[in-house]
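Raw record, unedited: Iron-uptake system permease protein feuC
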Amino acid sequence: MTTTTTAPDKTPAPRVVARRPQRLTRGPVVWVAAAAALVLAATVALGAGDYGLSPDRILATLTGHGEPLEELVVYQLRLPRLVLGLAVGAMLGISGAITQTTARNGLASPDLLGVTNGASAGAVAVIVLGGGTGSELTSVLGGLGVTAAALIGGLVSAALVGALLYLTSGGALQVVLVGVGVSAFFSGLTSWLLVEASIDDAERASA
């Protein structure tokens, strides 16, 4: 009598994958939280001060139902400062995003790339060299103004970083390293200008 044996079935059993609950994307949550924080900060900025305003009075004033004194405080004093602060903050955020995107490095910032120290060196150079007399170069630098000189110094620093990166074919890591080196150079230049300047010019430049 012959006994027939059947080989065991080696087909793997289908796996049951447990579905995880879908998580909310962080994008809408971040936008809602940012909007709420912005409204809260604006309310505090419009209401805080020697003449305090409650949120309901702020809303009434903005909708045209406020008292004359409330309208003066909101429209003439506090609202322009609030709008200017929001605009400056937005421009700073955009400039930071552009800097990091252009450098392709999340650590990139004006101080790390040497732009801040370059602007400081330009401003100090005009204050120090513009304080002297008898030099045509000194008179030209003194006529530029501190603001224009700071802008030129920042642009020169950024151009120097870009040129060094182009010559060395540097990547994202080299951006920070070159920026730190350029920043140290302009920091040393600023210190040298302050040391060589007169006491009055050094005090004006350090202020």
